[in-house]
Design a protein that fits this description.
By secondary structure, this protein is an alpha/beta fold. The protein is built from nine helices and ten strands. The protein has a six-stranded mixed beta sheet, sandwiched between helices. A four-stranded antiparallel beta sheet has the order 2-1-4-5, with helices on one face.
Length: 251
């Protein structure tokens, strides 16, 4: 399905919060299977842009198209159905710490389950095989019934990725997924995201502060500054001068 049109297409998109313009004049097209890094300083608009891509926010102006549908024209039930095809990995993991790992993984199914099944899943392990397979994919299958608060930061991020995998999404968005991890764990998580998306043919859009990972693990790099796109180029064409200009206060 996604081969016939871009996974994402933003057309002159702007987003305002009151009098403050968070994003302005964003034109962006991302094809199926691409790995795209969003880079820029804090406040540049990276997280806001990801929220537009997954439909958590709607633009103040312009159009956001996802998997061939204009989000702004969809009825809420249709939009929610489309959003279930997008898995999001967050910087803060968004896990329930006092639950076992399997319950946190099963949270990825909540949008597809009836209310009664979602409620039962918080108390009793459901879909054990699927959860186990997802956890095996991220390399910590033995932690399936461990309490989540007993895991390391890197392991928790792997659980968050496993939670996304059970959704079987067409797209994975990752919002600063390695910012709270040490360099070794950061490399492991970026390698894992790259491997999973490559094997599944899944599109990846990831916001990063670590430019070295944008260069080594992504096809394209989109530089944001002040809510505007400064460059959108192949990762191999990214220069130190571009990065220096992106992170300086003055243009």
């Amino acid at each position: 399905m996604v081969e016939n049109f871009p996974v994402f297409e933003l057309k002159n998109v702007g987003l305002r919060f009151g009098a403050i313009a968070s994003l302005s004049g964003i034109n962006l097209r991302i094809e199926a299977g691409e790995k795209v890094a969003l880079v820029g300083s804090s406040g540049a608009g990276k997280s806001t842009l990801l929220s537009l891509l997954n439909g958590s926010l709607l633009p103040s102006e312009g159009e956001v198209w996802v998997l061939g549908r204009n989000l702004g024209t969809l009825r809420p039930p249709v939009r929610r159905h489309l959003q279930r095809q997008i898995g999001t990995v967050y910087q803060q993991f968004h896990l329930v710490e006092n639950l076992r790992v399997i319950h946190n993984i099963n949270a990825g199914n909540l949008g597809n389950w009836p209310l009664w099944k979602a409620a039962v899943s918080l108390m009793y392990p459901l879909e054990v095989k699927a959860a186990s397979e997802a956890l095996n994919r991220v390399g910590i299958a033995e932690k399936l019934f461990e309490r989540t608060d007993r895991l390391s930061g890197g392991q928790r991020q792997r659980v968050a990725i496993a939670r996304v995998l059970v959704q079987n999404p067409s797209v994975i968005l990752a919002d600063e997924p390695i910012s709270s991890l040490d360099p070794e764990r950061s490399l492991e998580i970026m390698d894992l995201l790259s491997k999973i998306t490559r094997e599944r043919g899944t599109t990846l859009v990831v916001s990063l502060h670590a430019i070295e990972f944008a260069r080594s693990h992504c096809d394209r790099v989109v530089g944001l500054k002040g809510g505007r796109v400064q460059f959108d180029i192949s990762a191999s064409d990214l220069t130190d001068t571009m990065i220096e200009k992106l992170y300086t206060t003055q243009d």
